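Minutes, project check-in
Item: structure for the 273-residue chain
Input as provided by the requester:
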Amino acid sequence: MPTNRTMTLRGKRLITTALMLALAAGVAGCGTDKMSTGSIGRTSGKPLDTMSAGELHNATAVLGQSYAKNPNDKRIATNFAAALQMDGDADQSLAVMRKLAIVYPKDRDVLAAYGKALAANGQFEAALDAVRRAQTPEYPDWKLVSAEAAILDQIGQKDEARQLYRKALELKPNEPSVLSNLGMSYVLEGDLRTAETYMRSAAQQPGADSRVRQNLALVVGLQGRFDEAEKIASQELSPEQAQANVAYLRQMLAQQNAWSQLKDQDKSKPATN
């Protein structure tokens, strides 16, 4: 039986995967050193977001040892920060990226990752500043445009966010991470059907990765189609992890329905003097 810590971690990871995909894309694939926040580099080829809680905790410890030996290595520090964030330690993740941003104050990859860490801590204005400083107006980077849009979505500026997502798609047509995040914009608004349309398009693109398909599984599950969601998730996760994620969605939706029923009951009660 999963523990409360495991369930909480799973929920955080589902939400992190869904809402922060564009910010991760702002780092993955940038630069010549092939930095990526999606995998743990030399320690394993397995993406962080497909690991079990135990695997993720162990991977974070291994990355921490590498980071202690060479804290100014961009790839190691960025991967360590990503692992910390996925493992539920957003504060330490931010501390790692803040230190790296001091060492590399003009590095676009580092600033993008720093913006991701700031946003994960709810420091959205600072996150926007970091991502915008990383951008070069005369040579706009679609990954940074999408990252800025993801932050704007989280502070409720959906119209501005969607304009930027579409700008990113002009720069990089049919990019799956941007399509998926545009879908998440509609999830935040509660328009799950439109969200699913964008996410299915994202998942069908040749460059779609695990996080894109997990987001599709998430939005399908949020509509109550749990068997279909589990089938999609099982393409990326172990059967046990896929079942656990769907179980968490079921629990989350059941709690939402319970709260809605309580609110409806409160509304129906006659007012007392």
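Outcome recorded: Confidence is low (pLDDT under 50) at residues 1-8, 19-43.
No further action items on this chain.
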